[in-house]
Design a protein that fits this description.
Layout lengths: L1 H9 L31 E4 L5 E3 L3 H8 L3 E9 L29 E9 L4 E5 L6 H12 L3 H4 L11 E2 L31 E4 L5 E3 L12 H9 L3 E4 L12 E3 L4 E4 L3 H6 L15 H10 L3 H6 L22 H10 L3 H9 L3 H7 L8 H13 L17 H7 L14 H15 L14 E8 L5 E8 L1 E4 L9 H16 L13 E3 H9 L2 E8 L4 E11 L5 E6 L2 E3 L5 E3 L3 E3 L3 E3 L22 H6 L5 H9 L4 H10 L5 H10 L10 H6 L7 H9 L4 H10 L4 H10 L9 H12 L7 E11 L7 E8 L2 E6 L2 E4 L8 E8 L3
Parallel strand pairs: 6-11, 14-18, 15-21
Antiparallel strand pairs: 1-2, 1-3, 3-4, 4-5, 7-8, 7-9, 9-10, 10-11, 12-13, 12-17, 16-17, 18-27, 19-20, 22-23, 23-24, 23-27, 24-25, 25-26
Pfam family, one: UBA
Keywords: Hydrolase, Metal-binding, Protease, Repeat, Thiol protease, Ubl conjugation pathway, Zinc, Zinc-finger
EC number: 3.4.19.12
């Protein structure tokens, strides 16, 4: 011990006392998922305050030379088996009144360790130097960077006073609400009833994703009348603040300071009412408490828990299932496994990382890949798998996207696109190892105007987004019979059972065919006719990626701009062939539309947006420029199409670029001023024009393109520019046959709520990944997917 103390004193200069601004990691290793509960405990660097597991702390010593560490080891306490379980009263985790997960209790032991010999001194000890004691006390008292960087509780926002409450219109219909015996005015529902505070109508609430709840009559009444406030009957007591008042235009539970007056208008003496109904928050608590993952996706089927490499679950950090399901599928693809596991060791990633590896995306993706695929954290020690918490990865991937840093539910599609964009960014210096390229493909729009001349527009994407044509349902006879039965039961005041409901079944082939079906382009400006006209557009793919991701557009807008999820099944085969979707490019005998019009103003008109579509989107709160781009990029097909495009491209880096810039890069048109700029750099005009066409009119990218292709031919045609563009981007390509390897399903009425689950085909069987739970799938719901992942078959 004397020798260890001497070592410590000789290294006091390598000990820092933390300052309030320092981030202290003490709950998880920054290069693995080791914690103080792990066999070797956790070592905290007394200079950087980064934490390392036993197998990784020497890497840090070799990289930094920092020898002094605080070692924390947690040992499980013995707990009585009959410990009572508390019922939660607050929608929260880790706070008083929140969910009690019955987690085991641990006791902690501390030591000061000096590397490289692992000389150890116990803490606390009065013999330790004061500087060391102060530093350790600060570390132990600190909440920890991991906990600070996440919201530890799901606490519902405090209700605000509704803007509609103080001047609420109330209509005297002669209605007097009885103290009991309520039922919906439009159906026979006697539960989940809401009293509209304007006209006194009692109507049932929204239908839940599982078929429970009401029949949407209350919200439908709001859409018809605009009457804003309703109170849930059964939640009104003498304590009016506990009443569940909902504001439809504000789309949230609110406070109504004049609720007593508004109730008295309809003869309600609130002081005599007793609470009989659960409030919305309490019902949400019940749903969370009784959450059953088998019921959600596989109808309560018993599934065999799976353990080992590739079968590691991800802990839900609070509405993070969108991240968990997406990353599980991503790390099934060779693109991600080779980059961040097979060809990238943890030590190499750590050595290449900056001083703080917690903020390095490459390091955290490698950490996540090894955590998921190594099997180290998926050992059959019990029937329940604990999984690994992707906290550091979530923090770094969300750094450039504030929505993903919240505890709110997010769209799995938006997250996947954001992931690929960030992966492409950090791998820009070495495209050959960029996993995002395996998902990227080229798209070509062929537009033909009545003159017979054509123009080709090209772009790249990671996702093939498909509409679901309900008119192509294969069970139309059953649907017609179902509608008749439904109408008869409704007239008799009866309800359908879940087993009696018939949903449309649409084959995936019909969705793919719809993508390539010719469509009309309204208000297209033809440079040949020098006038606006109606053109015909067909779309095809210029390359087939290694992994094709299909997005099913299940969310549409109803009348009144109420989001609706299509209640439909899509029959997805294990093998698909999209060879027919290959774009053929400029064909012999086709004549291109003239590149330039008489003036720049006319040139920009050929990409003009439909004002009706733009105005409707703007009225919904979207940016005017973004709305114009949405209309243009969907060829003015309609509000729904523009909305879908807008929601999928909100984070595009060029979303705020002026329209005139995009108009100049449409088709094969090139801004002459940009050509002149490149000529001024010393490049030939034909080469400059070709580079601008290949790079979409971006001068900086065009310059890089020229330097990367010094032997590029000066000849510039649409055919060669398309081929050159694909060669430059080195996109993967091959045959059109693909095999289904995984899909992400969504349960809920909106992508911003509900739950996401992944099913992945591995080891010759389907496996369900539901947060930390991993099991053999009994009945994979392939017809209910939101995102489908296909792998291209090698010829």
């Amino acid at each position: 011990m004397v020798e260890a103390m001497e070592l410590l004193r000789s290294n006091l200069s390598r000990v820092r006392i933390p300052e309030p601004t320092n981030r202290i990691y003490k709950q998880e290793c920054c290069v693995s998922f080791d914690t103080p509960k792990s066999e070797g405990g956790l070592f905290i660097d007394m200079v950087t305050f980064l934490a390392f597991g036993k197998d990784y702390v020497m890497w840090n010593y070799e990289k930094t030379g920092n020898p002094v560490y605080l070692h924390i080891k947690q040992t499980r306490k013995a707990v009585s088996e009959d410990r009572p379980s508390k019922k939660p009263t607050l929608l929260a985790i880790g706070v008083e009144g929140g969910f009690d997960n019955n987690e085991p209790q641990y006791e902690e032991a501390y030591n000061i360790v000096i590397l490289p010999d692992y000389a150890s001194l116990p803490f606390p000890s009065v013999e330790l130097p004061e500087k060391v004691r102060l530093a350790v006390d600060c570390i132990l008292m600190d909440e920890g960077a991991e906990r600070k960087e996440r919201v530890a509780a799901w606490v519902a926002d405090k209700k605000q006073v509704s803007v509609h409450a103080m001047n609420l219109l109330q209509v005297d219909n002669g209605i007097v609400i009885p103290p009991s015996g309520w039922k919906c005015a439009k159906c026979e529902k006697t539960e989940n009833l809401w009293l509209n505070l304007t006209d006194g109508l009692i109507l049932c609430g929204r239908r839940n994703w599982d078929g429970s709840g009401g029949n949407n009559h209350a919200v439908e009444h709001y859409n018809e009348t605009g009457y804003p406030l309703a109170v849930k009957l059964g939640t009104i007591t003498a304590d009016l603040e506990m009443a569940d008042v909902y504001s439809y235009p504000e789309d949230e539970s609110v406070l109504d300071p004049l609720l007593a007056q508004h109730l008295a208008f309809f003869g309600i003496d609130f002081s005599s009412l007793q609470k009989t109904e659960l409030t919305t928050a309490e019902k949400e608590l019940d749903q969370n408490t009784n959450f059953d993952w088998n019921r959600i996706q596989e109808s309560g089927q018993e599934t065999e828990p799976l353990f080992g490499p590739g079968y590691t679950g991800l802990v839900n950090l609070g509405n993070s299932c969108y991240l968990a399901s997406t990353m599980q599928v991503a790390f099934t693809t060779h693109a991600f496994t080779s980059r961040y596991y097979e060809n990238q060791g943890l030590k190499k990633a750590f050595e290449e990382a900056p001083a703080d590896p917690t903020v390095d995306l490459n390091m955290q993706l490698t950490k996540l890949g090894h955590g998921l695929l190594s099997g180290k954290y998926s050992v059959r020690s019990s029937e329940k798998q604990e999984g690994i918490p992707p906290r550091m990865f979530k923090t770094v991937i969300a750094a450039s996207h504030p929505e993903f840093s919240t505890m709110r539910q997010q769209d799995a599609l938006e997250f996947f696109l954001h992931l690929l964009e960030q992966v492409e960014r950090v791998n820009s210096g070495n495209p050959a190892t960029d996993p995002s390229r395996s998902f990227k493909f080229g798209i070509e729009d062929r537009i033909e105007c009545p003159s017979g001349k054509v123009v080709y527009n090209r772009r790249f994407d990671y996702i093939l987004s498909l509409n679901i044509p309900l008119n192509e349902a294969t069970n139309k006879e059953q649907l017609e019979t179902f509608q008749k039965v439904k109408a008869e039961l409704k007239s008799e005041g009866k309800e359908l059972t879940t087993d009696e409901i018939v949903r449309p079944r649409v084959p995936l082939e019909a969705c793919l065919a719809g993508y390539s079906t010719p469509e009309e382009v309204l208000d297209f400006y033809s440079t040949a006719l020098k006038a606006k006209t109606t053109a015909t557009k067909t779309t095809g793919l210029t390359s087939f990626p290694d992994y094709l991701v299909l997005h099913m557009r299940k969310f549409v807008m109803e009348e009144g701009w109420v989001p609706k999820k299509l209640d439909v099944y899509v029959d997805v085969p294990d093998i698909i062939d999209i060879s027919h979707m290959r774009s053929k490019g400029l064909q012999p005998g086709e004549e291109l539309l003239p590149e330039c019009a008489d003036d720049g103003e006319v040139e920009s008109k050929k990409l003009s947006a439909n004002e009706d579509i733009v105005s409707q989107l703007v009225s919904m709160g979207f940016n005017n420029l973004h709305c114009q781009k949405a209309a243009i990029n969907t060829s003015n097909a309609g509000v729904e199409e523009a909305m879908n495009w807008l929601l999928s491209h909100m984070d595009d880096p060029d979303i705020d670029a002026p329209l005139i810039q995009e108009a100049q890069s449409a088709g094969v048109s090139v801004d002459q001023s940009k050509v002149d700029t490149l000529i001024s750099f010393g490049f030939q005009e034909e080469l400059a024009r070709k580079a601008l066409i290949a790079m979409g009119g971006d001068i900086e990218k065009a310059t890089d393109w020229i330097f990367s292709n010094p032997n590029a031919s000066g000849a510039s045609t649409v055919d060669t520019s398309a081929a050159a563009s694909e060669r430059i981007n080195e996109l993967p390509d091959g045959g059109g046959r693909f095999r289904l390897v995984g899909f992400v399903s969504h349960i809920g009425t909106s992508t911003q709520c509900g739950h996401y689950v992944a099913h992945i085909h591995k080891g010759g069987r389907w496996v369900i990944f539901n947060d930390e739970k991993v099991g053999a799938s009994v009945n994979p719901p392939k017809d209910m997917g939101y995102l489908y992942f296909f792998e291209r078959l090698r010829d």
